[in-house]
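forwarding from the other thread:

> can someone predict this with adenosine-5'-diphosphate?

sure thing
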Amino acid sequence: MLKKRGKLIVISGPSGCGKGTVIKKLSEKIPFWLSVSDTTREIRDGEIPGVNYNYLKNDEFLSKVNAGLMLEHAAYSGRAGKITYYGTPKPPVSAHLEAGENVLLEIEVQGAGQIKKALPEAILIFIMPPSMEELEARLTGRGTEKPEDIKTRLETAKTEIALADSFDYIVENDRVDVCVEKLVEIITK
Ligand code: ADP
Ligand code: 5GP
């Protein structure tokens, strides 16, 4: 008998809204395979290559795109305005879905739109911060970006929030546990 394909779940939302935090908690509640993205951004303190991201040079990234090896990819404003690429490698996602596992992608909104076009059965969830003030406080509190990069991320957040209605679900991340419960409900229903 053919194995039932897993569900493809896409979690997006502005940088600093708490995606990483809620996904970690979610992994304690339900099983899924978390895709490891490729990126051209610099590694942050505490990140591990192959676990948080695969860190590639621009030409390596673009040759993977040209070879059709990315399910989606996007340019995102990186440090000091430098263009940074992020993308989801296709082969591992296909393999895990075919093996019947749920697959979760944590990606920004342009990439989410590409996923919905390519795979309409994907479940798109937008994580909404309680307010712009709280988003700024979370980004500042995380302390991983310089003030000018936080400013760029907050500008990008406005255009991302404007696209939230194109998602299947919008879930506010006010309290982490409440947000995670809502995600469990959406994914398991
Ligand atoms: P993202 O992955 O969306 O960029 P993170 O998960 O890194 O965001 O969260 C950004 C910062 O906000 C972190 O310091 C995290 O601890 C904090 N945070 C996340 N969710 C909440 C919440 N519900 N309430 C308060 N702080 C939060
Ligand atoms: P960060 O630099 O904070 O890790 O990520 C910046 C933004 O890139 C976040 O919104 C994150 O969700 C997004 N991102 C991470 N991986 C991917 C990916 O593979 N594709 C796309 N389109 N966005 C990604």
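The first helix runs from residue 19 to 26. thats all i got for now
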